[in-house]
Every structure is written in C-alpha cells, then in structure tokens.
Amino acid sequence: MQIRRRALVATALAAGAAVALTACGSGGDGGSAAPATVAAVIKGLDNPFFQAMEKGITDESAVAGVRSTVQAATSITDTTGQADKLTGLAGQDFGCYVVNPISGTNLVQGLAQLAAAGKPVVNIDSPVDPAAAQAAGVQLATYIGTDNVAAGKLAAEQMSKALPGGGPVAVVGGIPGDVTSGARIEGFKAGLPGGVTVLQEVAANWERQEALTQATTIIGAHPDVKGFFAANDDMGLGIARAVANAGKTGQIAVISVDGNPDALTAVANGELAATVAQYPYVIGQMGVDACAAAASGATLPAKVDAPVQVVTKDNAQQAIESAPKPPAPYDNPFTAK
C-alpha cells in the first residue's frame, strides 16, 4: 500500500508539473515537461519539531521524485528573516510553495507575490491570518495542521487524570499573541474539570530556559501548585527541570504539546506526565502530497487535521519506536486509499 501511495504521488506531480510551471511563467519550447519543484519556508531549525518537519518534506520529495528546497528562519522568533526568505524564493520559478509562518501575518508580503503569479500555496502547521490573506488577495490551496484547541483539550483531560483530587495549575504559553499558543491554551482551559483551577498564566516565548525561569518563580510563589501545562515540549522540558530542581518530580504534573523525541523520553522516564504528540514529519509529508494534488488540478479540502496522540508512560515506548510517525493509521486525503 505504501509503494502504491508513493507511486500515485509521483504520478500526480509528474502529470501536473508542466501545467503548474507553465502557469507560473516558466520558459521553454514545450518539448518536454519540467520536473516538479517545491519550495518550503518553515520556522527555525533550533527546535526539533521543525527539524522533523523539514525531514518529512525532504523525504517525501525524494520518494516522489520532486526537486525541493527548504529554507528556515534562524530561530522560532525570526519573523523578519523568515519573511525575507519567502520573498527571495517567490522570485524563483517553483511550481508550488509550502509555508509554515512564525506569525499569522509575517509572510503576507511574499504570499501576495505568489498570489499575483498564480502559484499554489500550501499552508502547514501555523495558519496564515485569514483577514490578512484576504486583504492581500491570497487564496491558499489548503491548510494542514493540528487542531490546537482539540490538542489543548486532550492535555486538560490528561491533567484531570493526573490530578484526580483537583488543585491549582499554571499555564505557560509561547509568544504573546501567537495563534497556535492561544488555541492550545484556550482548549486546555475549556477542557479542565471544575476541581482543577488555573492560578497563573505566563509566556515563555517557546523557549526552554525561559520556561525554567518562569516555572521556578511560580513554584517559589505558589508551593501548592499541582501541575503545569506548556504549549510546547521545549517549554515543558524547562518546567520539568524547574520541578526537579525543587525536588518535586512526580508531585507536580507537567503536560505539554508536540511529541518531540526528547519529550517522549522524558515521559518514559517520568519527568513529564504526558505530551500531546503531533507528527511534524507527517505534516511535512502531507505538504508535499498537497502540492502534488494541486499540481494535478485536484480540488483540495480547505483544512486537514494532522494526526495527534496522547503519550503517557504507558505507551511512551510504543510512541518512541514508531516515531517520526504515529503508531496508529491516519487519513491522508491527498493520496488514494
């Protein structure tokens, strides 16, 4: 089945490459089809989540016979640098673009260039702001990513299991105003049972060291804190370090989102109570598959939810062994069943 899926992706890209590239103004005498090309701009590779995403894009491109390039911001907060990379790539003759913006608006200028050129754009992981896209005349081919509100609710369900007697918890978000962080926190708060209350919410800019500092302060000010929810694993691991430094590992439950390899190991070791695992490798693969479908002229779904799984100590080893893919089957609407 996997071999057939790969063949279908390659066939779709080969069939649609000439159409996509011709529409984008490529030259030539029309004697032969140009190879399919995909350009991707993602967040900073200082985070293992986006390292896995890059690998998913490059691996799927190799399988499908696609020439691809992946450029990343220098860090997860490098909004201007990331925008410059897309603007540079927008002036080149790629058949399809995959974008993973740092903020909802930082890539809009480059996206407007692509829209004017009629080039298909696949949005993955972090959504482009709909109002900004509309104002710039940008119509995205599809969005592929985690339902972050749902992921937050899954974390809340796990927190309620970790704290059957209830108690106060703290919430650590990413960059203030970030859409992804906000959605995860929204879902977490909405999913908490009545006995679990949020005593404080802070931002740690997606950074492990900042989360360690914030958690250390919170534990010192609120020695009765029973749990922490972190909007990503890097921050969750920083919080886990603060908990360990306070001698409270196993007494304070730390739950985060992402499913990065070091977080899976931390769950297996009992440092994290759980992580809501996303699969950035699969998101990257789906981005390439969506470009294949767009190149072949297919009508794409407006939104596709990427797979997620709650990982606890009970299933951490299984999750580690199946990484970078989920152990359970999942739907990919861009390829034939």
UniProtKB/TrEMBL annotation:
The keyword Transport does not apply. Residues 315-337 are annotated as: Disordered. Pfam families: Peripla_BP_4. Keywords: Signal. PROSITE patterns: PROKAR_LIPOPROTEIN (PS51257), TAT (PS51318). Its main location: other. Residues 1-22 form the signal peptide. The keyword S-adenosyl-L-methionine does not apply. Residues 39-298 form the Periplasmic binding protein domain. It is found in: Cell envelope. Belongs to the bacterial solute-binding protein 2 family. PANTHER family: D-ALLOSE-BINDING PERIPLASMIC PROTEIN-RELATED (PTHR46847). This is Substrate-binding domain-containing protein. It comes from Pseudonocardia adelaidensis.
